[in-house]
Amino acid sequence: TDISFTHLLELLDRINVQLSEFEFLYQKCNANNNDLLPSFQKAYQSGDIVVLKSHLRLWQHKQGKFAELQVIQLKMMLTTLNADNITKKEILILEDYFKNISNWTFFELYLFGHAMPFLDEKFMFHLFQELHQKSILYDNFRYDSFSMLFYIYNNIILFMLEHDHLDTADLLIQKLTYYFNQQEKDYYHRARLFNLQGLALYLQGKKEIG
Questions:
Q1: Which residue range or ranges hold the HTH-type transcriptional regulator Rgg C-terminal domain (predicted)?
Q2: Which residue in 32, 121, 141, 154 could disulfide with 20, CB within 3.0 to 4.6 Å?
């Protein structure tokens, strides 16, 4: 049955479960069934074009907005791997969808992460600022969901460095550095952050330090 987001929040409040916990449990229970995002991501990271095209054919025969967005997401992955082409119409569909998001979930974060190279620069950065301003909503998420936010931070910092927006990239790196200074045991993200810091210093002309 259909349920409104407000009603869902009321139900979760009654049983003393936070929205972040609910999303985490949903993702965990549906990772191998209803939710194919982990499968998409695994195929994408390994460059498995055959699997991605198989998923694409499956979703192209489904109806509804979610199916349409899944098709676009898969086409973006394949385009990045030089195995397909995303159209201007599909980018406009994405932009319209992003403009009307009231509650960002794992799906929207994945979608935005893959859409970043294809979106208009100003539009993309505006969306990122919106996510950044709402970061308090995600600070209480489980560890793996913050990894998605780090993935987005990582991509936008690399984008800013590539387009010579060094001051903006440096500001974002400082924000991440401040956060991870409080997370001494988080070696994985700290190592990736160290790489971003080195790249930024190198591009700023501080080659010996970087």
A1: 56-208
A2: 141
* pLDDT, tens digit, 9 for 90 and up, residues 81-94: 999 999 999 999 99
Q: Are 115 and 77 in contact (CB under 8 A)?
A: no
Q: Which two tokens stand for residue 162?
A: 């590539």
148/109 Cα distance (integer angstroms): 7
Closest CA to 76 of 113, 106, 48: 113
Tokens 């987001």 sit on residue = 5
**pLDDT tens profile 23-79:** 666 655 554 444 567 778 788 889 999 999 999 999 999 998 988 999 999 999 999
Chain centroid to CA 95: 15
How far apart CA 209 and CA 206 sit, in angstroms, is 6
Ranges of each domain in the chain: 120-210
